[in-house]
Design goal:
Layout lengths: L1 H4 L3 H6 L4 E4 L11 E5 L2 E4 L1 H20 L4 E4 L6 H10 L4 E2 L11 H18 L9 H18 L11 E4 L6 H9 L3 E6 L10 E4 L5 H20 L3
């Protein structure tokens, strides 16, 4: 398993995976994954992180082998495009602007909003578009933009996903809570300020540095490719 993903401790450090939050913000359940302190921040134990990382990658690979659906969630501005790009490459759903409360717990309602977005886009692309006044078109275009940000990544999601991959367990706390309520498996990047018990598989790592998230998503991509290659 280790050879398959070639996770190198030095590379992890170069990409700042080890840098946690201020010691005052540390979640007590993350203490076993902390190596020490640097100035006022906690430093993550990369040996322990690597072990959990490999477990998460193996789980993702198996999910893909079994043709399970993974929803990617990462709404912080610097990583939005990264999350969208990875999900779209494999036709997985994603949320990269804002988690809308009820996405899992009130899925039929969310599905209606997605359908409404599809209808608006179809209108815009039809010959009837010219029949609307300039004001009406502007209003619909603004609505499409807002809905696209919230629900554009859910276009092909016909039912609840099997797994949700969360890039920040604190910011996307509601997503993790809803997933647990609905029995959806949670895989997450878990910084020192997060509760690892909110995830079924967690990667103890810096969730703020773009380099860290990029490195992790790169390995997740490898796991997806392995799953596709070895799938049934």
């Amino acid at each position: 398993m280790e050879e398959k993903y070639k996770i190198d401790i030095e590379e992890m450090a170069q990409n700042a995976l080890h840098l946690g939050h201020k010691t005052s913000k540390t979640h007590p359940k993350m203490l076993p994954f902390i190596f020490g302190m640097r100035n006022t921040i906690h430093v993550i134990d990369l040996e322990k992180s690597k072990k959990k990382f490999l477990e998460a990658l193996e789980f993702i690979e198996n999910c893909v082998k079994e043709k399970k659906v993974i929803l990617f969630v990462g709404t912080k501005a610097p990583i939005r495009e990264m999350v969208k790009s990875l999900a779209k490459e494999f036709s997985f759903p994603y949320i990269n602007y804002k988690w809308v409360g009820g996405t899992f717990t009130n899925f039929p309602e969310i599905k209606k909003r997605v359908e409404y977005l599809k209808e608006l886009k179809a209108k815009k692309n039809s010959q009837d578009w010219e029949k609307y006044t300039k004001k009406e078109r502007k209003k619909m275009e603004e609505e499409i933009k807002k809905l696209e940000e919230k629900f554009g990544g859910l276009n092909n999601l016909e039912s609840l996903p099997d797994v949700v991959f969360i890039c920040d367990l604190v910011k996307e706390n509601l997503a993790a809570k809803e997933a647990r309520k609905k029995g959806i498996k949670v895989v997450a990047i878990c910084d020192t300020n997060a509760n690892p018990e909110m995830a079924d598989y967690f990667i103890p790592a810096n969730d703020d540095a773009v380099s860290s998230v990029k490195y992790i998503l790169g390995k997740v991509r490898e796991a997806i490719l392995n799953g596709l290659k070895n799938g049934n």
